[in-house]
């Protein structure tokens, strides 16, 4: 029994770490939703695209090599240099900002005043486009991402828990780094939105687009800003997930993992995204641990959704969401 | 000049409330039906049936189903793939359990079973609205796919975990299995599509359809004027899932022949059908046809041009296809949020006045 309990708490702890990663993706959603009312389905693909770009720049790949080869019949592969990780990350941030500007100019600007569901569907289209674009630009093969983050079992935790419970917990170093980074990111975003001028403008836009416009806040600048921040968050998420399991298409599916986190935490709340992520990460690991073996395993694919669905029936706005008031 | 409603006088209630009240429309649809039933089956070959016609017919059924839910009742669903899987596995279980019953009945029954499952997952829509509902329907998508993957009873304990359609006939003609002729596949799907389209058309212009639209436009206001949201939403989910289930059953039994649930009915299928509805036009039966035709033809066309015409490698072509489909969705939403159906309406408007627009 005691053994069972230590295994369960190990699973729970790992779940918490995974939950932090979900929160990281969910954070990007919340940022955009709060400030522009757009539910950005493309967030996961943005993470994939950011990770692809980072790897591509690091390894000095030629962008669009496959396409150019197909058209000209050449065989370009790479520039033959390696870019240091820090510089590559800075360049990728630049690319993500460029992307934010392009999205604002080409898509959002034309969709002002449309129904939210139309905007949502536009981001699904955007997700498809970016997925294809990333593949055309950098190739679809699985890449390894290494920016020098520590990986593998954390020996301190193992020896400590080994001394306490007689059983060493397995915690990946990368998960710990991810947890620390997420906490730092959330703190930074909170400080930014509470104490900086742009942050205040951002909250004003979130409250009321028209009122914000009337006091002279540039909606377009705020949108570019928010999408850039979301792109940055996507990059962080892409680095974490990419270091963990390689940069490949399945990376974009983390968006699907983040959706129930959002539903649980509420679409408009940054703390909600964090708490929701922790609940879902821990819940799905524990469910898989206790119930999974009885019903065939691999429950992680749907558990989060069903949990969120049941939860929402009782509290439709999520844990921390703003109360939904409907008027005729 | 070419399209006119003037001079088309109705002298009885029956004439006034028929399915297609404008004579020109009616004649157009009859002509389309005559070509579809009288010409195409005799000239169709395997390539055209498998690449274009059969998928078009099946996806048109699915798109009509989803359009009822999203376009008419305003409940966004991302669970289409899961519901199609229910139809496919239901028809598979029925076909193997009762081999002597005609396949047509099985397909309809599979639709009925899907309708029940759809109602089950539709019930939360009474509490959950908008995005929350869209995400909640993903629960159906993932749970159902997992269920069909993990419970061996659904795939009759086959070693590969796949389901394979056995040979079944109607009136002595093969409808499913390897020996089916292209014309038989085509006609079977066409008959069902015709029935589905007629049913959808009449449902959406009757009491039920008006209730759906009232709920879509504003559910609280609709409730106040006496529309029961429970019955409206549940019927929308039931009818929509019924059609989607039929489409899933046909996709598996007639078109694919063998299916693996994660691959054939994954989330991408949900998006594909949703895109058909958006590009075709929300809240339009004609739009469902147009959207299905567009998204079935586009990959065939791109493949022929990029791979066949320019000789590019297939993977580059596949990625470009993703880009083009994604960009098209965005362009459509910006330029014409009401889809191809709206373009068709505008064209009719123009044709009515042409060549003297003033």
TrEMBL record, chain A:
CDD domains: TM_PBP1_LivH_like. It is found in: Cell membrane. InterPro entries: ABC_transp_permease (IPR001851), BCAA_transport_permease (IPR052157). It is a multi-pass membrane protein. It holds the Pfam family BPD_transp_2. Belongs to the binding-protein-dependent transport system permease family. LivHM subfamily. It comes from Rhodobacter capsulatus. GO terms for biological process: amino acid transport. GO terms for molecular function: transmembrane transporter activity. This is Branched-chain amino acid transport system permease protein. GO terms for cellular component: plasma membrane.
């Amino acid at each position: 029994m005691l053994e069972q309990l230590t295994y369960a708490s190990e699973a729970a702890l790992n779940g918490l770490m995974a939950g932090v990663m979900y929160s990281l993706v969910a954070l990007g959603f919340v940022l955009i939703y709060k400030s522009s009312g757009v539910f950005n389905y493309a967030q996961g693909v943005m993470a994939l695209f950011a990770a692809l770009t980072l790897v591509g720049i690091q390894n000095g790949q030629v962008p669009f090599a496959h396409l150019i080869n197909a058209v000209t019949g050449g065989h370009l592969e790479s520039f033959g240099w390696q870019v240091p990780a820090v510089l590559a990350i800075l360049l990728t941030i630049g690319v993500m900002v460029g992307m934010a500007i392009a999205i604002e100019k080409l898509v959002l600007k034309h969709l002002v005043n449309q129904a939210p569901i139309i905007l949502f569907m536009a981001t699904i289209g955007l997700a498809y486009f970016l997925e294809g674009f990333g593949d055309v630009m950098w190739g679809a093969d699985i890449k390894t991402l290494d920016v020098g983050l520590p990986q593998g079992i954390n020996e301190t935790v193992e020896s400590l828990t080994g001394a306490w419970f007689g059983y060493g917990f397995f915690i990946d170093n990368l998960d710990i780094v991810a947890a620390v980074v997420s906490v730092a990111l959330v703190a930074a975003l909170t400080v930014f939105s509470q104490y900086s001028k742009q942050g205040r403008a951002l909250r004003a836009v979130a409250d009321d687009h028209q009122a914000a416009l009337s006091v002279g806040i540039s909606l377009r600048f705020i949108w570019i800003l928010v999408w850039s921040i979301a792109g940055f968050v996507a990059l962080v998420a892409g680095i974490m997930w990419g270091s963990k399991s390689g940069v490949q298409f399945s990376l974009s599916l983390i968006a699907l993992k983040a959706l129930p986190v959002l539903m649980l935490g509420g679409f408009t709340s940054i703390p909600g995204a964090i708490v929701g992520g922790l609940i879902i990460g821990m819940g799905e690991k524990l469910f898989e641990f206790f119930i999974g073996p009885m019903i065939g395993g691999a429950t992680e694919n749907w558990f989060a959704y069903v949990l969120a669905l049941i939860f929402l029936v009782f509290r439709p706005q999520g844990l921390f969401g703003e109360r939904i008031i409907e008027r005729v | 000049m070419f399209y006119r409603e003037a001079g088309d006088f109705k002298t009885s209630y029956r004439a006034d409330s028929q399915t297609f009240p404008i004579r020109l429309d009616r004649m157009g649809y009859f002509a389309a039906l005559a070509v579809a039933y009288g010409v195409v089956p005799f000239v169709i070959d395997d390539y055209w049936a498998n690449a274009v016609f059969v998928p078009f017919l099946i996806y048109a059924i699915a798109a009509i189903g989803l359009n009822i839910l999203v376009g008419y009742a305003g409940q966004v669903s991302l669970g289409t793939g899961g519901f199609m899987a229910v139809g496919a596995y239901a028809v598979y279980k029925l076909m193997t359990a009762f081999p002597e019953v005609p396949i047509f009945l099985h397909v309809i029954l599979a639709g009925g079973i899907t309708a029940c499952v759809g109602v089950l997952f539709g019930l939360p829509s009474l509490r959950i609205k908008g995005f929350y509902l869209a995400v909640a329907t993903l629960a159906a998508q993932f749970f159902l796919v997992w269920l069909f993957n993990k419970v061996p009873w659904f795939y009759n304990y086959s070693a590969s975990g796949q389901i394979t359609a056995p040979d079944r006939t109607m009136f002595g003609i093969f409808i499913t299995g390897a020996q089916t002729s292209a014309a038989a596949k085509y006609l079977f799907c066409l008959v069902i599509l015709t029935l589905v389209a007629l049913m959808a058309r009449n449902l959406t212009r009757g009491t039920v359809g008006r209730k759906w639209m009232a709920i879509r436009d504003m559910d609280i206001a609709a409730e106040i004027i006496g529309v029961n949201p429970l019955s409206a939403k549940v019927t929308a989910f039931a009818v929509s899932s019924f059609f989607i289930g039929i489409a899933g059953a046909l996709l598996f039994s007639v078109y694919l022949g063998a299916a693996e649930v994660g691959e054939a009915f994954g989330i991408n299928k949900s998006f594909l059908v949703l895109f058909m509805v958006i590009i075709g036009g929300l809240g339009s039966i004609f739009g469902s046809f147009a959207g299905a035709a567009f998204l079935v033809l586009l990959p065939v066309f791109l493949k022929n041009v990029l791979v066949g015409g320019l000789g590019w490698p297939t993977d580059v072509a596949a990625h470009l296809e993703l880009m083009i489909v994604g960009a098209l969705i965005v362009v459509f939403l910006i330029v014409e949020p009401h889809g191809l159906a709206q373009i068709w309406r505008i064209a009719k408007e123009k044709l009515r006045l042409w060549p003297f627009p003033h």
